[in-house]
Specification:
Elements lengths: L1 E4 L5 H12 L4 E6 L4 E6 L7 H5 L4 E5 L19 E2 L5 E2 L5 E5 L6 H14 L3 E3 L16 H15 L3 E5 L5 H7 L2 E4 L7 H10 L4 E4 L6 H13 L5 E5 L16 H9 L4 E3 L1 H5 L2 H13 L4 E5 L17 H17 L6
Parallel strand pairs: 7-8, 7-14, 8-9, 9-10, 10-11, 11-12, 12-13, 13-14
Antiparallel strand pairs: 1-3, 1-4, 2-3, 5-6
The structure holds phosphoenolpyruvate (PEP) and manganese (II) ion (MN).
The site of manganese (II) ion has 5 residues, from loops.
Length: about 350
């Protein structure tokens, strides 16, 4: 249940409606938006007497919320959430945020070079995997701790915040130390223990990728796990889902961007690289994602895609990335967005 207060409601009226809800045994989340204050019940709202609440002074409307996610729900928080990155960049709101970098950190030279290039082109953050979830145990698994250190150095030298994937709760301390945005990969979207530990153990932004076969509701429930455990800084990332189609690596579900933005206040970005698996599709799908309302993109950029240790086929070069950024800049003004 959410209670929408009148814009004229006084602090005392808000407090008394909140206390009346709490008296029914629920916790109340107070969200002060640009227009109004919203009181959201967490827990068993069935005990709250709806008609009685409608009579409280200052109450505009009482709404029942059928969705199982609360903190992630737009009904509880009508304004878009804006997530702050170190250095002043943001994800969400009017400004588009483009995250770029290689699938995996390979060498100091590689990650530093790519960081410089994408920074010059206008990226908001640098990505690079150090712990890689590979389908085969015989494939390159990432440079692990060394990779984290290299990524951190490249981030510091270029001035870009860094984004990298966590695979295990045992790495949370190291990520807390080295990483600016912690990515939860598609394969771990329903690793509930990891989600809970990230929610309770850090306030760093969590980039939550959609699972390979996750419904939109399951994806939002995973965001809810992180938020319910204490970390509201969640960014969602659509990266394609499994369908019967095999031409592309996955099928980019752009309608999910609209669905999630309707249902949730959390920012949503799109990863066209993993969605399509083909470098030549990245530019057009990036533009489509921005046109569909995505708050940003995550794009794999490699200095030498044919020799990349991971995901070369879907990686674009720094030159291609620069050209893509020019097109996104032109598109941004058409769709009412800003970009640095
Ligand atoms: C990645 O970003 O490198 C990655 C492994 O992505 P996903 O979890 O979407 O497959
Ligand atoms: Mn990859």
């Amino acid at each position: 249940m959410v209670i929408i207060m009148k814009s004229s409601a006084s602090e005392a009226e808000i407090r008394s409606a909140k206390e009346a809800m709490e008296a029914s045994g629920v916790r109340v989340m107070v969200s002060k938006g640009s227009e109004t204050t919203i009181l959201g019940a967490e827990g068993n709202a069935a005990k709250i007497d709806r008609e009685k609440m409608e009579q409280y002074p200052g109450v505009e409307r009482v709404m029942l919320v059928s969705e199982p996610y609360k903190k992630a729900n737009r009904k509880y928080h009508p304004d878009d959430s804006i997530i702050n990155l170190p250095g002043g960049k943001t994800i969400g709101g009017k400004k588009l945020a483009i995250i770029a970098g290689p699938c995996s950190v390979e060498t100091d030279e590689q990650i530093t070079f790519v960081a410089d290039c994408v920074k010059k082109s206008g990226a908001a953050a640098l990505r690079g995997g150090a712990f890689k979830p590979r389908t085969s145990p015989y494939s390159f698994q990432g440079l692990e701790d060394k990779g984290l250190e290299m990524l951190r150095r490249a981030g510091d030298e270029s001035g870009l915040p860094i984004v990298t994937e966590i695979m295990d709760v045992e790495h949370i301390d190291a990520f807390e130390k080295y990483v600016d945005v912690i990515q939860v990969g598609a394969r771990n979207m329903q690793n509930f223990n990891l989600l809970k530990r990230l929610g309770a153990g850090t306030t760093k932004p969590i980039l939550l990728k959609r699972g390979l076969s996750a419904t939109i509701e399951e994806w939002l429930m995973s965001a809810e796990y992180i938020m319910a455990s204490g970390n509201n800084n969640v960014i969602l990332c659509e990266r394609g889902i499994r369908t019967f189609e095999t031409f592309t690596r996955n099928t980019l579900d752009l309608s999910a961007v609209l669905a999630v933005k309707q249902q949730s206040h959390l920012p949503v970005i799109v990863d066209p690289s993993h969605a399509c698996g083909k470098a030549w599709m990245v530019e057009k799908m990036s533009m489509a994602a921005i046109a569909a309302g995505a708050d940003g993109l995550m794009i794999e950029v490699h200095n030498d895609p044919p020799h990349a240790l991971c995901d070369g086929a879907q990686s674009i070069t720094p030159v291609q990335f620069d050209s893509l950024m020019g097109k996104i800049r032109a598109l941004a003004s058409v769709v009412g967005r800003d970009i640095d």
